[in-house]
Amino acid sequence: MQFGLSFSPSPRRGKIVAAIVFLPMTVLTVLYVLGFRQNLTESQPPGIYRLTDRSSDPLVSFCPTGEAAEVTSKRGYRAESWTCSDGHAAMLKPVAARPGDTVMVTHDGIAVNGILLPNTKSYPFDNRHNSLHQWPEGRYVVQPGTLWVLSSYNDRSYDSRYFGPISIAAVMHYGHLVFRF
To answer: What is the third-level CATH fold of 55-174?
Structure first.
């Protein structure tokens, strides 16, 4: 009894299967090489981002150092990955202040050049009730070779409100949002 379906291999079927499997992989590889990345973390809007070398772009991808690296890896704030030397993924954050800008850290949040940024108030604990070291209140002038990174998208983002300015030397890429999900 036959039902009209044949499962014998054919050259045409093999080419179709190869195209279905390898074409998306090739497209994804090309997009990766061109600097496109998907972000599903809560710190930035979910979407497709493009990483560049243009320092004028509004975002930076960087590997945290010191206590910030330790906290983010131990607490699972960054996924395991090969991008940073500590075996975890780089962080993607908006640049809030550049050299020469004035940053004011207060109980209400962080102001840059006199403008209070939304959702930048620091908290003593994260969402899992782990204690957080808050950057000391005060007025700071952003020094050459450093940046302040702050997510006004998520009020619980782990960023400069906890670890202060980052070194530009830690920046792997600059970037911008291409498509928001």
So the answer is: Umud Fragment, subunit A (2.10.109)
